[in-house]
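In the design runs reported in the main text, the only information available to the sequence generator was the tokenized backbone. The following block is the verbatim input for one such run; it is reproduced so that readers can re-run the procedure and compare outputs position by position.
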């Protein structure tokens, strides 16, 4: 069967740039919404001992360009063992032969492509003069989401609302220390209403089971990106009602995103209110932001085609640069 290229986290880190990964998310969403990707809804397994949930996410790009599957697990008890609670790997296959060609560390790629989806949504849906961002969450997805948004808009001020003050302070220190386009003016706050009312862009990147802010506090013209919350509900029905909603996957969100399907079931919004996908905006089938007063919302649970498209790019670059370790797979 030949050999397989194994790419460690450092390989992926040194290959991916924000320019590339934001562009790749646009490509992935367009492939999906344009019917050029085969992608079943992700499979979720949950266990109580150990306490964990595990996702298995396959996708295929049409035209024999390649296919793959990502595994990502959230093992809560790892925190007590001094280990990362999120673990992930991506297996890529040749589209013509089906032969496994690469195994990638998946956590960094997942964070990057998730953040880049918030960046792409900001590029397409936020006002061009958006200058203030509020971030709800201080975990692994919050930082790349903020970095990506700052890559597409000239952000001058950031508010951070974390679950705990200590965690939020660590987040601010990490973001400030990394440099890039994130502004130095970053403030912590526990006043959620103020943080919402001051924001041009809101990033919700939490695992919260309950809404993290009230939709009635949103000011006209705000853009919201809600990314990565697989099991909770970080947005209330009023936020959904007031917003023009774009989804990563209509089928996936209506089945698995409680922020989306609960307002429909509760009668807050009709089903037609939550039908459009961001990929349709990329393809020109739906408009981006339509006016300065419109409140826009991008809801994403993450879809496997993002991982496969991004992973295939990393593989091509790794082959060009001679990165990774070749392992006999015969």
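Verbatim output:
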């Amino acid at each position: 069967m030949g050999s397989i290229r194994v790419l460690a986290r450092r390989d992926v880190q040194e290959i991916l740039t924000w320019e590339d990964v934001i562009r790749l998310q646009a490509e992935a969403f367009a492939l999906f919404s344009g019917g050029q990707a085969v992608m079943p809804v992700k499979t979720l397994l949950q266990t109580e001992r150990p306490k964990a949930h595990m996702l298995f996410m396959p996708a295929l790009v049409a035209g024999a360009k390649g296919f793959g599957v990502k595994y990502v697990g959230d093992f809560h008890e790892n925190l007590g063992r001094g280990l990362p609670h999120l673990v992930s790997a991506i297996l890529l296959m040749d589209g013509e032969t089906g032969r496994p060609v690469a195994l990638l560390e998946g956590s960094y790629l997942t964070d990057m492509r998730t953040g880049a989806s918030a960046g792409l949504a900001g590029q397409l849906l936020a006002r061009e003069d958006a200058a203030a961002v509020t971030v709800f969450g201080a975990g692994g997805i919050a930082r790349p989401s903020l970095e990506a948004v700052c890559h597409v808009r000239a952000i001058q001020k950031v508010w951070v609302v974390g679950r705990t003050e200590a965690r939020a302070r660590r987040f601010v220190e990490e973001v400030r220390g990394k440099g890039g386009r994130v502004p130095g003016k970053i403030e912590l706050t526990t006043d959620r209403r103020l943080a919402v009312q001051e924001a041009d862009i809101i990033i919700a990147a939490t695992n919260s089971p309950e809404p993290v802010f009230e939709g009635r506090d949103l000011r006209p013209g705000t853009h919201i990106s809600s990314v990565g919350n697989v099991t909770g509900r970080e947005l209330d029905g009023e936020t959904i009602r007031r917003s023009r909603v774009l989804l990563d996957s209509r089928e996936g969100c209506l089945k698995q995103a409680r922020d989306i399907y609960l307002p429909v079931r509760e009668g807050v919004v009709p089903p037609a209110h939550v039908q459009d996908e961001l990929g349709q905006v990329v393809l020109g089938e739906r408009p981006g932001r339509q006016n300065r007063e419109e409140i826009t919302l991008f809801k994403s649970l993450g879809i496997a085609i993002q991982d496969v498209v991004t992973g295939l790019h990393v593989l091509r670059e790794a082959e060009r640069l001679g990165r990774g370790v070749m392992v006999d797979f015969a």
